[in-house]
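User: Please predict structures.

Assistant: First:
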Amino acid sequence: MKREIITTLDGSTTIHLPDWNESYHSKHGAIQEAYHVFIKNGLSLFEDKSISVLEIGFGTGLNAFITFLEANKNKLFINYTAIEAYPVSIEEALMMNYLKELDSQSFENIFEQMHSSNWNEKLALNEHFNFTKQKLFFQDIDNQNEFDLIYFDAFGYRVQPELWSTAIFQKMYNALKYKGILVTYAARGVVKRSMQEVGFSVKKMAGPPGKREMMVAFKNI
């Protein structure tokens, strides 16, 4: 499938798949979307100094990298697990302009390690952040009561509806700890109903630039 690197409206880059007319991040702003959805409406809900995060769709590594930056800035301790079935090449990842746009060139080695590290091997990136990536189909996830927070960042329902099914969200529900939270950019009614069917309480929130709504799902609340 053809892949193009494009610049989004906030100046940050993403990968676009013209055959699907689908991008890894919002064309309205990759970095803006990541911060709004996953930090403002996800990570910031936790005041604990130690949490476990599961990312569904590692992709270019943007979500993992900004979470590292937040952990480092706020002295949080995060165990981060990123799932990806079809990894981006390290050459493509290093073509992203996130280091410049985030003014974080001093952490270039961290971003590179995220992409060059071995699969299924926990890596201590610094005293605040443990990182593990797993090459795995989402359907094969079988974690139980392990994570405080899930970043659900799969490709959209329009192109991969099977990734937004009740069966997948049952796996997400099972993977979360008591009172865990799942956050996603999605806002479709069919996705909300799938979440609710497995037991999530779902709240629609204001979306990032270019999108009216997004969703946050709560376990045991």
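Second:
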Amino acid sequence: MRQSPVNRILILLKTEGPQLAAAVGDALGISGEAARQQLAKMAEEGLVEPVSVPARGRGRPSQLWHLTAEGNRHFPDGHAELTATLLTTVVQQLGPAALDAVITARENETLQRYRDELADRPDLAARVEGLAAIRSREGYMADSWQEDDGSLMLVENHCPICAAATACAGFCRSELETFRSVLSAEVERSEHILLGARRCAYRITPR
């Protein structure tokens, strides 16, 4: 099904980060002025906002368009409010150990499922590519590539369990350990949504 211009812009800003109007126009196949008009309408709806960037030299400042919190809410949130409430209730009623048990059980199930899906991928690059595909299917809007230094990157532009991770950082630690185990590699988180980054990014190198 063909995406509306609004949805295409939301996805572009989510996956590629803040953009100039001209770049949005190029991505949509429209003029920069048409893109600015569309962005202005979206700003009135609270979906995006412009941030001025000083020009190089004597030119006028540029405007980079960012997603707002309202714009981000157009992406799956994994039933954020309910999840956060349930986690708080578990800790209050059963104690921190019960939550640790829930996280461990989720980690074990996820690890086995990922291993089964990646079993036929013989090398690290293929496993990272496969993991990105799995994570995208789960709502993380993931991508992967190889850097010039030979390391591999796994990037997740969205976190559908962000409320859960905010309520309990154990989910983030658990996912990092799952990646290390299923990839049989060194995995370092270089960007983290919970620390204010627009995405989570992982640098992966052989052991």
